[in-house]
């Protein structure tokens, strides 16, 4: 029997929708499922396309959490992988994507919100401690971004970043580097999150000096023993909130989903355990199992939670 804190769903009257233990599930875009449920033949409350960037694992974990929760209340969820934030925001604005489950609209993705915000609906903040950082491994004996200029040779004049279109990349290139006078002494190397982690892994194995762009929450901070460099000029911006964003009119079209999403709020410990369980403990291909395990350990994590 599902445990439901959703008051609105109880008012829907359509008992059949409440008995949908799992409808057509994730990765339907590719014609398959991820094991989160099966189509029972009952009518779905609707199909929701959920867009996410697999390499940004804060959003990867919340994407699979939303897939699980929305399917349990009767929706069909299609998981749409993208590789850059820009196309994801464009997809939201055009209605090709219904939800982005881990947006940084206040600062990191502000330029996208300035461009597309009038066609995007904010479905609610779910985490309040997100932060962009410049980081080094704990064995590196500098503590501030101010120390980078005098130590450029130690780092080979390189800061390893992530995707070129990421808000973190923009903030580093346009704010941090000029603020600390690093234009002539450092190159921001961009490629992908995976490529950055490969460089970090290699450097750590050799105990070699390396500086990377990072963020919180991010599982790699603990895995690689990263320390955030102090930012006395505030060039990486203040802490911001993570939001669920929907295409314009989402709440009107999918009221039950909007109510569930509005109730989600995670603290530091809950978010860290969710991301670690999805990314590390279970890994690729076992995301549904990871969500089941997390829900079992956190049955009261937020107000609208749906558990078996």
UniProtKB/TrEMBL annotation:
Where does it sit, as one GO cellular component term? ATP-binding cassette (ABC) transporter complex
SUPFAM superfamilies (UniProt xref)? Periplasmic binding protein-like II
Enumerate the transmembrane spans. none
For this UniProt record, give its keywords in alphabetical order, as a comma-separated list.
Cell membrane, Membrane, Signal, Transport
A GO term (biological process) for this protein? choline transport
This protein's source sits in the domain of life called Bacteria
Q: Which residues form the ABC-type glycine betaine transport system substrate-binding domain?
A: 47-297
A Pfam family of this chain = OpuAC
Q: Which Gene3D superfamilies match?
A: Dipeptide-binding Protein, Domain 3, Glycine betaine-binding periplasmic protein, domain 2
For molecular function, the Gene Ontology terms on record are: amine transmembrane transporter activity; carnitine transmembrane transporter activity
Q: What is its subcellular localisation?
A: Cell membrane
The record's section on CDD domains has:
PBP2_OpuAC_like
Q: Where is the signal peptide?
A: 1-26
What the entry lists under InterPro entries is as follows: ABC_Gly_betaine_transp_sub-bd
Q: What is this protein called?
A: Glycine/betaine ABC transporter substrate-binding protein
Originating species: Microbacterium oleivorans
